Amino acid sequence: MKRNTMLAAIGAAALAMAGMSPVMAEDITIGVIANLTGQDVNTSVQMARGVEIAADEINKAGGIGGKTIKLIVEDSEYKTQEALTAATKLYDVDKVPAVIMFGGSSLMIAVAELAKQEGKVLINTSSSSAKLGDYPGTLFSILPLDDILGKELGKYIAKKGIKTVATVVPNNTFGLGVADAAGAAFKEAGGKVVKSVAYTEGQPDYRADMQSVVAAAPEAIISAGYGDDSRTIFKNARELGLNVPWFAAYPSIFTVENDAWMNGKLSGVDNGGYSNDTGKAVLAAYKAKWPGEEPLAHIYYGYDALKVLAAAMAKVGEDPKAIAAELPNAVKGYVGATGAIAWDDRGQRIDPPLDLIEYKDGKFETVGTIQ
Amino acid sequence: MISFAIYALTIIAIWSVMAISLNIQFGMTGLVNFGQILPFAIGAYAVGIGIEAGIPWWAGILAGLVAAPLVGLLVILPARRQSQDYWALITLGAGELFRLTMLNVPSIAGGADGVTISRLGDRNLALGLAVGLLVVAYLVGQRISRGPLGRMLRVIREDEVLAATLGRNPMAYRMKVTVVTWAMAAAAGILFGYVVGYIAPTSFLVTDTFLVWTAVILGGPGRNIGVVIGAAILILLSVSTRFMAEWSGLPSDLVANLRLAVFGLVLVLMFLFRPQGLFPETREVRDVDGR
To answer: What ipTM was predicted for this assembly?
Structure first.
């Protein structure tokens, strides 16, 4: 038996070697890291699909300088070490100049450290930790920082005449960032935060957390979240009879649990670009390629990430340092699926176009914009 | 490719140290430590907190190496009169308690945001340190295993009452084992922090403890070389399936799931056909003088 297992190990190694197929000379390889297994899979897959849509579009139009874009998608399993393994493989073995990444800040920062040391480029499509600003020239964010959107959300709620709120967010950088920014803006406008809940992600039940919100009896809830957790939160809130409006950062990335109960209850501030022509074209491409599957807003971020990167590469080629230097110029005048992109000198997105959206009859409607 | 191989070997060496540490606890002494990630996390966090506090790097390392065994003694104290099921629960709880504290009290080490550690830029140096640590851990493990201490630990593992009738205090031995193995795991954690360059609560989950357990069970509890090979197989399997995934040409999300399925399947098959591990402990007969 020992020999059999040895043989199996050798077989696995041989297969691994066979897997290292050389990349065609006429291809440009670009890496994508997403958590395809583990937590928060759906949103991650959507981002990767957005990148794929952009790659299809660019390749159809003749590629970058006649070269076809080849994507190598690696799984991060939502683990820091695996994200780092994936990034090391992409940068060192596949020799990609740039990686487009979806993942929490605990993964993104570790990969940013590596990219910085290796002199490569990292495009962030999902994480909004303030620490990401520490990697100018390495890391560029397609997603705007939480404080911008959170502030608008707080002001918006105060304008509705609401006096007391509870914040319900996941206990991560994104959730806490939104709660802090929205809460501060709401307080500044004269409101009061009566309860702050930061829930642990990935739990099967949040009744204890939601019970404490019910006990505080807020007039409304400020929230951020995504995926299965948001569905569970809504379910628990509904079961506990918490029938107050929900104001959210990026409501479109929530998973609504009960259409009828949520009708007219969920609204908030979201990225405003999606309704432009590029956004509509991306949506159409998505529906054509994955018919019957409901898209999430993440496809637009993935799409813009590759478009911006490709625009820089079309000008300066595949040298990562030249790409990093060109990227700030490449976004100038670019209007993508998430609107016009403006970066500060750290490569962090500022002044994003924002929309006010509301959940009505099973879908989100744009009810206003924030200039 | 070479630098990727160097990186993979570094990771293998770090987790092998963790496996040897658990092997001395579980394989030799029978201590069911479900919080093996705790000393690892303490080591990594000591370095991170040290950097935030602005103390010299060696002081942070020293703090980790000292704090982990102390915490270990504190954790096992309530379990001293309990059987190993309680031991498992207490260590599991302690590991989670530490992680959740780090997550929910941002003033200690940044909460969910974590702490950035100055990353070891030189990969060869990182590999050298990791292999050096592995050699030291292995020699310590072998010395314990081969000597009279290892024999007494195995007596405790098999029959605690027998050990007591021989005039030995099982708890004293367990404390000794805890001090040595938790310091060993802390050293692995310290190196992990420097290799990754960033630590956050998500790096120290219960699943990481079970990765180490899998390595030990796969390799063969009680044999140091076995658990090192167990850890190496686990990491190599995880790394090599990445290349297979790319080569298969299937959709990336499908392949990511298949990758984990293959990983699980190999483990299930191993446990089905070789439950004693790849390199099981061998029976040794010795006379009263230990020869």
So the answer is: 0.88
